[in-house]
Design brief:
The structure is a single chain. By secondary structure, the chain is of the alpha/beta class. It is built from 11 helices and 12 strands.
């Protein structure tokens, strides 16, 4: 089966269903338009990676001037673009040095559906945004140098997009991938069973692997919608056992091998208040890309370097 056609077909099916319900569907992005991208070229030496980053959820359900409900961000709406741009610029600030950074605007699903916890509804309504991300990724592939490694990285709903991209990409494309980073989202047993390209990272420099983590203050706060994952790794010491690691001198980060989540102590998380009793309630979901930014920055470089060495060895 052609995965690209299949993914696009699912997205189109979802759009038609929304139209039938009288809901508003924002105009699809045109990824040939530079305005649909936030990019930073920080690779002056040409030795880094191409970083494809997908932002998290920013919008709530909203209503058009003529009274139609919309459940998605509008990439042509200046306010929605501004919200996504905040995260893009913040992520790009630490992911772009030494790399080429690309982040597409997309019609992400608003938070209201996620809060319901209804997996079937979430899966149905995320067909549209996942279709956008797959289309953006295909455009990214068409315009990049295949001699360079790439990494894909996304936070929250963007983490879901990483799982979908691993299913979407071909094995030929996968061979160019240094790593995939699923930040603040889950990888399920069904995901790994149906996609051989999803392989759990075992250390700090293995390539072609998926890095996944979620952070809580206690395992009892694991959010099943986003954090009920089948594997995880500690991004501070890059271990998959319960060896604790120290971050910023005062924070202890320990992976729970049973629940595959990070348990932290010494971190208040006070700057991330609970949101509608869904996130930041015992978990510190909103910190995932920022608390570990120095670790992620170094690791992207480490895995890109390892990919280049492996490729060089294969060409000899």
């Amino acid at each position: 089966m052609n995965i690209r056609i299949y993914t696009t077909g699912l997205a189109l099916f979802g759009v038609l269903a929304l139209y039938a319900q009288g809901e508003y569907v924002p105009e699809r992005p045109d990824y040939d338009d530079p305005a649909m991208w936030y990019t930073v070229d920080g690779d002056s030496l040409g030795t880094g990676a191409d970083v494809f980053y997908v932002v998290s959820t920013w919008e709530t359900d909203w209503t058009t001037d003529d009274g139609r409900l919309c459940r998605y961000a509008d990439v042509w709406n200046p306010v929605h673009r501004g919200h996504m741009g905040i995260e893009m610029s913040k992520a790009g600030a630490y992911m772009s040095p030494g790399n080429r950074f690309y982040a597409p605007y997309y019609r992400h699903l608003a938070i209201d559906t996620w809060v319901t916890g209804d997996e079937d509804t979430i899966q149905s309504r995320t067909r549209l945004p996942m279709g956008d991300v797959c289309e953006a990724f295909d455009h990214f592939l068409q315009h990049r140098d295949e001699q360079r490694p790439f990494v894909i990285i996304g936070f929250s709903q963007g983490g879901m997009a990483m799982v979908e991209l691993l299913k979407h990409m071909s094995d030929e494309t996968y061979a160019q991938m240094a790593a995939a980073y699923v930040l603040g989202y889950k990888v399920t047993p069904e995901d790994t069973a149906t996609c051989h390209r999803i392989r759990a990272a075992q250390g700090e420099s293995d390539t072609g692997v998926t890095i996944c983590y979620n952070t809580v203050k206690d395992v009892k706060y694991v959010n099943p919608v986003i954090a009920n994952t089948c594997f995880g790794i500690n991004p501070v010491n890059w271990r998959t056992d319960d060896t604790p690691a120290t971050l910023h001198d005062t924070i202890t980060v320990t992976l729970s091998p049973e629940h595959h989540v990070l348990v932290v102590s010494g971190y208040s998380g006070s700057e991330y208040p609970p949101y509608r009793d869904f996130i930041n309630v015992g978990d510190i979901h909103s910190c995932e890309p920022w608390l570990y930014s120095e670790c992620l920055q170094k690791n992207i470089a480490r895995r890109a370097e390892a990919w280049r060495k492996q490729r060089g060895a294969c060409l000899k």
